[in-house]
Amino acid sequence: MSAFAAPALAMNAPTTRIASRRARVLADHVRAVPRRAPTEAHRVATKANSSKSDADVEVSDEEMQRLTGLITKKIDDNDVVVWAKSWCPYCDEIKALFDDMEVAHLAVDLDKFNEEKALVSALTRMTGQRTVPNVFIGGAHIGGCDATMALKKSGELRKMLADLGVSFKQA
Questions:
Q1: What's the pLDDT tens digit per position in 111-164?
Q2: Helix (H) or strand (E) run with residue 108 in it
């Protein structure tokens, strides 16, 4: 080590202690300062920068008709249809419910399609529901996970399936 390096190292040691003490004092000060509520300007900027939801995508009338027809055909051709997304735990819960009951159902993972946002927009227009899962039984819109699980708990789900002639596993 050179003669010039040793004094430099010796000088850094006290400076480091002072710097870390300043950091602790600053941290204590920051913790003591109450957080301010966001200003109106911050709210407006945040809202302007937020991305559109899937249901807010703009779709031409012609495309909307085509997608609505496709959705309606799937609903008409199947007794039980679950419109879902592959990553959604609530969708997985509903799919598992129908699998456990051994109910033949069509589960459509919307995120597997290039037209995902347009399909969600079409479903939202049809049902008023912006979330998945979007469950249809016998052509009727049931709702999402909570509504379907409530029907199961009340016993209405089994009655609906029996009335449709859909076979299912008796518990």
A1: 999 999 999 999 999 999 999 999 999 999 999 999 999 999 999 999 999 999
A2: strand 106-109
Shortest CA distance to 81 belongs to which of 45, 123, 50? 123
Token pair belonging to 154: 């009340």
Asked if 160 and 151 count as a contact pair (C-beta separation under 8 A), the reply is yes
Contact 105, 131 (CB under 8 A): no
Residues 122/59, Cβ–Cβ less than 8 Å: yes
Q: Is 95 helix (H, G, I), strand (E, B) or coil?
A: helix
Tens digit of each residue's pLDDT (9 = 90 or more) over 47-68 = 444 445 555 678 899 999 999 9
Using DSSP, state whether 134 is helix, strand or coil. strand
Query: Is the separation of the CB atoms in 110 and 55 below 8 Å?
Result: no
